[in-house]
Amino acid sequence: MASVASVIASTLPPSIARLPERTAEFGSLLYAWAEINSGSGHLAGLDRMRAALRAEFGRFAGAQVEELPCAGTAAALRIRMRPEAATRIVLSGHFDTVYEANDPFQHCRWLDADRLNGPGVADMKGGLLTLLAALQAFETTPHAARVGWEVLLNPDEETGSHGSRPLFVAAAQHNHFGLVFEPARTNGDIVHSRKGTGGLVATCRGRASHAAKIPNDGRNAILALAEFLLAASHVPAELPGVLVNIGNIRGGGPATNVVPDFAEAELDLRITKVADRALLLGRLEALAAPINAREGFALTLKGGFNRPPKECLPAEEALFPEWQRAARDAGLAPFSWIHTGGASDGNFLSAAGLPCFDGLGPIGDQLHSAREFVVVPTIAQRAQVVALFLHRLAAGEIALPPRAPAAASIQAPG
Ligand SMILES: [Zn+2]
Question: Is the pTM of this model over 0.85?
Answer without folding.
Answer: yes
